[in-house]
């Protein structure tokens, strides 16, 4: 008696559910994503042959414009919130919780303490008009607002690290325009040295190493 072979068909997979999930995830990320705030000052950095790469997170950046104005930007919303809480109490800036939150999600800034509240409540175009730079006192580091920002930001980041909210302390970064006068850069470097920050990185545009190019020939 011949054996009966069952009829075999091609299996089918319904992809409808997977497509629905994919579009839901895409929609979620599009609606919740936040644009990076535009930098207050545009800086054209000089070029070098250095191939060292900076980390994507955990940086404290000091920017020096071509006219010598100094700006600051720092990573970490929670660190920025803790920092502004401390400085608000110390300088009695009278910031509300909403204004502190706005600062925590903002980008770079360059105003004295007494104008920070006004800066927070302006739009980007108006902020540029009052951004006179963070004051630097090279004679008395205790009166230098830049030194105070750096010192307290590092303390806030260290506290976040102790609480397990961040992995590392701040990587200090100096970003100056190629047209910035050297004395303006030197003032920032002197400020860092005065508060015992002896390790920092200089941001440059990468150019071809002439020694490597010559070797290939």
* Total helical segments: 8
Derived from helix and strand composition plus strand pairing, the structural class reads: alpha/beta
- The helix content, as a percent range, equals 40-55%
**Shape estimate:** elongated
- The mean pLDDT is 83
Distance between the termini: 80 Å
Number of strands: 6
Unreliable residue stretches: none
Order of helices and strands: HEEEHHHHHEHEEH
Biggest sheet overview: 4 strands, mixed
Strand order of the largest sheet: 3-2-4-5
Q: Beta-sheet strand percentage?
A: 5-15%
Q: Return Rg in Å.
A: 25 Å
Description:
This protein has 217 residues and is α/β, with parallel strands linked by helices. Helix content is 41%, strand content 11%. The protein is built from eight helices and six strands, in the order H-E-E-E-H-H-H-H-H-E-H-E-E-H. Helix 2 packs across helix 3 and helix 2 packs across helix 6. The longest helix is centred in the C-terminal third of the chain and has 18 residues. The chain is elongated, with a radius of gyration of 25 Å. The model has no long low-confidence stretch (mean pLDDT 83).
Please give a quick description of this structure.
The chain is α/β, with parallel strands linked by helices and 217 residues long. Helix content is 41%, strand content 11%.
């Amino acid at each position: 008696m011949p054996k009966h072979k069952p009829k075999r068909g091609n299996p089918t997979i319904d992809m409808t559910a997977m497509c629905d999930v994919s579009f839901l995830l895409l929609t979620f990320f599009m609606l919740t994503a936040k644009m990076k705030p535009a930098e207050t000052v545009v800086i054209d950095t000089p070029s070098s042959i250095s191939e060292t790469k900076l980390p994507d997170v955990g940086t404290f950046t000091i920017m020096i414009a071509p006219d010598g104005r100094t700006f600051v930007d720092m990573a970490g919303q929670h660190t920025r919130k803790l920092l502004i809480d401390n400085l608000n109490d110390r300088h009695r800036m009278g910031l509300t919780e909403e204004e502190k939150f706005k600062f925590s999600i903002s980008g770079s800034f360059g105003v004295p303490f007494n104008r920070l509240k006004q800066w927070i409540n302006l739009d980007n175009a108006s902020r540029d008009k009052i951004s006179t730079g963070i004051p630097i006192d090279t004679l008395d580091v205790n009166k230098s607002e830049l030194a105070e920002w750096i010192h307290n930001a590092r303390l806030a980041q260290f506290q976040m690290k102790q609480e397990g909210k961040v992995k590392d302390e701040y990587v200090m970064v100096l970003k100056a325009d190629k047209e910035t006068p050297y004395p303006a850069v030197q003032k920032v470097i002197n400020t860092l040295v005065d508060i015992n920050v002896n390790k920092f990185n200089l941001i440059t545009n990468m150019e071809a190493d002439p020694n490597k190019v010559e070797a290939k020939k």
